[in-house]
């Protein structure tokens, strides 16, 4: 093993040094690596230590050793550490932005949003932890029951790249503040940002071993992840990412009887009723469809527009000339890989071949696609029901709200949705009938409030993150009863 001197990635975000894993609060490097390349140019940026099954076991053992002491800490001690982390993020904002725009296809604007969301989520967890209280019930005469919430143990969190700071922290923070220790398995597209999470927590006072970070070569991921899921010390797994990968991890969890939280793909319907404020809805549709180049699980994939307002709505959308570019200060950047962009192009081509018309956008080249709106999209087009995860949105016109609700629910996903109407009672009635973990009235589909539980229905996953509900998700119930002395009849 070759040990590098520091876990600090924020002071020099453009470093070309080999990126270590972080185990027991220290950098951990081996000769096995994979390359991290610039997603726009393909230029080599740096090498990343690639953990093997043995390295993953060492990380788990570190978390297991740290568990008894961390489990015994008070909620107020944990809260102080989380509050410290929020302050450090605030102080290191510019370093985080530089790192994120260097390593990923983040724009500067999206990086600032990622930071803001992270701070809000950590702050809410810090506030919520003291609300996790024991309950006392009296099940019968002479009996008392005490209901406690206790940590699972070591939790494996697997995070994506697209909101690397928010989702990287979320993969471990709900568990850690609940008294668990954690392993963060990073995304191969944002390993350095995910290392920054360990740095920030360490500087905030989190004891060594409570959080361990490992990077895995994508080719080795199936066997390394399964070895971690199978390890007896791993008591719960959470994964945020695509539904196909989530299905494989859920299968592993099933084989080894491990509970899990899955926040998977989405294909959010965006319904605009005839009495909506058109310009307000257009602004939100642009945000829901194209923010972060559509690479958000809550992004809108179908705009369901009432026939009477569709032309006016689309004329307004078209007037916003949206273009993508490779630089961090662009409004929209390229997708995280060229194959991902090619997949989006295939969805667009399928819709066009079935009768849709391109209202805006162009195919671009490489990993860049210019924001695309497809009008008159038939329901048979793949893009209507599949997760797009790119800068494209399709339009279907409807005659009445029953038709809109049918189309909105005719999909395998149920993570987020939106309904626009000036009649809040009507909008609320429609929202209640949409099969989704969240429905936003007169607002974008892209919302994850730290004070509200977040998660999906159907193939968008199960379990919830955020606040008290998120902490409860990573604790388990224990019942202790106290009874008056009595005798059972034995004969």
UniProtKB/TrEMBL annotation:
Residues 30-480 form the Aldehyde dehydrogenase domain. Transmembrane segments: none annotated. The keyword Secreted does not apply. GO terms for molecular function: oxidoreductase activity, acting on the aldehyde or oxo group of donors, NAD or NADP as acceptor. Pfam families: Aldedh. Keywords: NAD. PANTHER family: BENZALDEHYDE DEHYDROGENASE YFMT. Belongs to the aldehyde dehydrogenase family. This is Aldehyde dehydrogenase. The lineage of its organism: Eukaryota, Fungi, Dikarya, Basidiomycota, Agaricomycotina. The gene is vdh.
């Amino acid at each position: 093993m070759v040990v590098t001197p520091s876990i600090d990635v924020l002071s020099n975000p453009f470093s070309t040094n080999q990126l270590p894993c972080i185990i027991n609060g220290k950098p951990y490097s081996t000769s096995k690596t994979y390359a991290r390349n610039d997603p726009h140019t393909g230029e080599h940026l740096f090498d990343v230590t690639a953990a093997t099954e043995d390295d993953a076991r060492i990380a788990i053992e570190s978390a297991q050793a740290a568990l008894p002491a961390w489990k015994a800490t008070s909620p107020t001690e944990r809260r102080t550490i989380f509050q410290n982390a929020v302050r450090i993020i605030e102080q290191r904002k510019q370093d985080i932005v530089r790192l994120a725009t260097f390593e990923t296809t983040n724009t500067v604007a999206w990086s600032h949003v990622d930071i803001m969301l992270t701070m809000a989520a950590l702050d809410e967890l810090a506030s919520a932890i003291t609300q996790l209280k024991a309950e006392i019930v009296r099940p019968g005469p002479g009996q008392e029951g005490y209901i406690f919430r206790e940590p699972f143990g070591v939790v494996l969190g697997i995070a994506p790249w697209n909101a690397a700071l928010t989702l990287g922290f979320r993969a471990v923070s709900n568990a850690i503040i609940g008294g668990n220790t954690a392993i963060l398995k990073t995304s191969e597209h944002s390993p350095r940002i995910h290392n920054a999470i360990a740095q920030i927590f360490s500087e905030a006072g989190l004891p060594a071993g409570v959080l361990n970070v490992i990077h895995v070569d994508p080719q080795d991921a199936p066997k390394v992840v399964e070895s971690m899921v199978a390890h007896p010390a791993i008591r719960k797994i959470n994964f945020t990412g695509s539904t196909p990968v989530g299905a494989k991890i859920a299968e592993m969890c099933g084989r080894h009887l491990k509970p899990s939280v899955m926040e998977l793909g989405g294909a959010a319907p965006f319904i605009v009723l005839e009495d909506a404020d058109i310009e307000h809805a257009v602004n939100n549709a642009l945000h829901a469809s194209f923010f972060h180049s559509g690479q958000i699980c809550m992004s809108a994939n179908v705009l369901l527009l009432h026939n009477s307002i569709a032309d006016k709505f689309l004329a307004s959308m078209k007037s916003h000339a949206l273009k993508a570019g490779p630089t961090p200060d662009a409004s929209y950047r390229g997708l995280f890989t060229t194959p991902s962009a090619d997949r989006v192009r295939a969805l667009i081509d399928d819709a066009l071949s079935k009768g849709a018309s391109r209202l805006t956008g162009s195919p671009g080249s490489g990993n860049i696609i210019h924001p695309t709106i497809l009008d008159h999209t038939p329901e048979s087009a793949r893009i209507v029901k599949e997760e797009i995860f790119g800068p494209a949105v399709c339009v279907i016109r409807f005659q009445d709200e029953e038709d809109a609700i049918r189309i909105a629910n005719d999909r395998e996903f149920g993570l987020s949705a939106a309904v626009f109407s000036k009649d809040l009672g009507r909008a609320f009635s429609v929202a209640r009938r949409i099969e989704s973990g969240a429905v936003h009235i007169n607002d974008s589909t892209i919302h994850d409030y730290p004070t509200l539980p977040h998660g999906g229905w159907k193939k968008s996953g199960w379990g919830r993150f955020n606040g008290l509900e998120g902490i409860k998700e990573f604790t388990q119930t224990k019942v202790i009863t106290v009874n008056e002395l009595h005798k059972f009849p034995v004969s």
